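Contributing new records

If you add data, match the layout below exactly. Sequence lines come first and carry their own label; structure lines follow with theirs. Keep one chain per record. Anything else will be rejected by the validation script.
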Amino acid sequence: MILPASHKFLRIIYTSINRIDLGTLAGRTELQQLAARAQGRNRDAAISGMLIHNESNFGQLLEGPAAAVESTMERIILDPRHTDIAVLECRPTDQRIFETWVSGYVGPDAAYQQNPSPQLRAALCTAAVLPGDVFTKMFDLAESGRLADNLQPKPPHDLAI
């Protein structure tokens, strides 16, 4: 995608079905190892964003230079640990939502431990899929500045795929 000169970044938001069994230690370890590699790539490529997940689904926002975001998305699409990838948004933008986060993370464990909001916690921990309102709540928290205060990523939970 070639961005108009007036736009600095590309933002992609997608959901997918997770094929990693996060109910096992091996699955959680696999996710942590994947995340550690992805975090380094994201930092090197100037990509920021956030990953949210529950036991069966991922949702991720990626933002940064168009070529870098597209390359990352191509890797995600080819990754057998995802299936049924649905791109919810793909658009140029001048402003990052998560400009200070290489790759923030919100999952059921973080939702319980760090208590971002009752609605977000309930949506992450009880839904079979990630409903669209989870993304709305995530953006609302980010824009209000509470996300950085309430959901500081902590290694090894600073994730992106």
